[in-house]
From TrEMBL:
<keyword id="KW-0479">Metal-binding</keyword>
<protein>
    <recommendedName>
        <fullName>Probable GTP-binding protein EngB</fullName>
    </recommendedName>
</protein>
<dbReference type="GO" id="GO:0005829">
    <property type="term" value="C:cytosol"/>
</dbReference>
<dbReference type="InterPro" id="IPR030393">
    <property type="entry name" value="G_ENGB_dom"/>
</dbReference>
<keyword id="KW-0460">Magnesium</keyword>
<dbReference type="InterPro" id="IPR019987">
    <property type="entry name" value="GTP-bd_ribosome_bio_YsxC"/>
</dbReference>
<comment type="similarity">
    <text>Belongs to the TRAFAC class TrmE-Era-EngA-EngB-Septin-like GTPase superfamily. EngB GTPase family.</text>
</comment>
<keyword id="KW-0547">Nucleotide-binding</keyword>
<keyword id="KW-0717">Septation</keyword>
<dbReference type="Pfam" id="PF01926">
    <property type="entry name" value="MMR_HSR1"/>
</dbReference>
<dbReference type="GO" id="GO:0046872">
    <property type="term" value="F:metal ion binding"/>
</dbReference>
<keyword id="KW-0131">Cell cycle</keyword>
<dbReference type="InterPro" id="IPR027417">
    <property type="entry name" value="P-loop_NTPase"/>
</dbReference>
<keyword id="KW-0342">GTP-binding</keyword>
<dbReference type="GO" id="GO:0000917">
    <property type="term" value="P:division septum assembly"/>
</dbReference>
<dbReference type="InterPro" id="IPR006073">
    <property type="entry name" value="GTP-bd"/>
</dbReference>
<keyword id="KW-0132">Cell division</keyword>
Length: 195
């Protein structure tokens, strides 16, 4: 996939701010610091459009990016910070339900996990949440450059098992350092965008 144009449309806190263009959307979620911004930036060939290393405690927003004028990536705020207050957690949940419960043009989701680690309970909850909303999910196991080749198949199997991944959902090994997995990731996303 050749990305010629990618820009941020809005950082939305409520649904009145969502872009109204009727184009398909893909939502991306992952634990804070897992490498989600790096994944987005690699996919759209930008160094720093999606902000990396977001700090805890800053305003949680849904960031809409328009790609090639034809679809949106929606960057969901990272989860899994231990120090987030209960009030912030509640606000996050409300924002998620408002988006995932109602957004008509949402066609698919991406869950970014770390190939080195067993998925956390929150990763499992996020995957289940997507499946509850009937979304096809592409699982990106990133930072593959940090895992020796010989160890990758076992890590891949472990992640599929712990998340209880539906057999129709692909798990793709990825590296933002080397761009490995990028073509395969686009292939999966394009199938949902019907492009
Ligand atoms: P986010 O909080 O999920 O958006 O995570 P970031 O994209 O900011 O990445 C967190 C840290 O992991 C940064 O220091 C990145 O440079 C690093 N990182 C992200 N992806 C990769 C990868 O594929 N390989 C390696 N080696 N480091 C990565």
């Amino acid at each position: 996939m050749r990305v010629n144009e990618a820009e941020i449309v809005i950082s939305a806190v409520s649904k009145t701010q969502y872009p109204s263009d009727p184009i398909p959307e893909i939502a991306l979620a992952g634990r804070s610091n897992v490498g989600k911004s790096s994944f987005i930036n690699t996919m759209i060939q930008r160094k720093n459009l999606a902000r990396t290393s977001g700090k805890p405690g800053k305003t949680q927003t849904l960031n809409f990016y328009i790609i090639n004028k034809s679809f949106h990536f929606v960057d969901v705020p990272g989860y899994g910070y231990a120090k987030v207050s209960k009030a912030e957690r509640t606000r996050w949940g409300k924002m998620m339900d408002e988006y995932f419960g109602e957004r008509e043009q949402l066609v698919s989701a991406v869950l970014v996990v770390d190939l080195r680690h067993e998925p956390t309970d929150e990763d499992c909850m996020m995957y289940d949440y997507f499946k509850y909303h009937d979304l096809p999910v592409t699982i990106i196991a990133t930072k593959m450059d940090k895992v020796k080749k010989g160890k990758r198949p076992a890590q891949k199997k472990l992640i599929r098992e712990v998340l209880e991944v539906d057999e129709k959902d692909p798990l793709i090994l990825f590296s933002a350092e080397t761009s490995e997995g990028k073509d395969e990731a686009w292939k999966s996303l394009r199938s949902h965008l019907k492009m």
